Hints:
Largest sheet: 10 strands, antiparallel, barrel
CATH architecture: Beta Barrel
Radius of gyration: 20 Å
Amino acid sequence: MGRTAWIATVALAVLPGAAAAGWFVDVEAGGAFPGYNDVQVPNDPSGTRFSLVEALDVPPVPVVRIRAGFAAGRHEISAFAAPLRLEGEGTLATDVAFDGSLFPAGTAVEGLYRFDSYRLTWRYRLYESPRLAFSAGLTAKIRDAEIRLEGGGVTAAETNTGFVPLASFSLAWTPDGRWGALLDGDALVGPVGRAEDVFLGATFRAAETLRLRLGYRMVEGGADVESVYNFTLVSFLTMGATLEL
Length: 245
């Protein structure tokens, strides 16, 4: 069963009248700029805590994020995919013990940080007026992550795929019906980690069924557990378009 058909099946099961819902497709593109990326694998004295972005040259990369879903009454359900792949290379200034392998100082290495995110989100519109709208809900997130070092004939990688529940929110202000501002995101802080994906920017309704936006997105978070320590910040300058079908 395809993703769109699966969403439709869920919709019909949970929302009365979903067959008459307003469907939409949202595409966002721009550049991802690495911030901090602190790593230790494993998270004990046998692993070296180091910064990927300080040890290696990790350049900005282009990114694309896609979301599709529907709105029915005050409810909105959407599915989302956002692959992220940051790669770098450099010469280590100090010894790095990573995932059971030793990379001595002076080793030329290549590094990879991959964080692919897939989400299913439900939001409920709590308040709406001609100028202001606020929605809140829940996101079920699957993250598929990998950190890899390769150099001196040695390759070591830490991979992890898991489920993360998040709180979801959207606050839209449109004072004149066309131009506005948007604060939108998913976030949660827990005892061993945190995750935030938040957008802040300007919006413009170009047509009855087309909304545009331009702004800044921050993706930050990580985990401090026995197998891995990793906290990362990535900044995005993006533009997006939402087409109502």
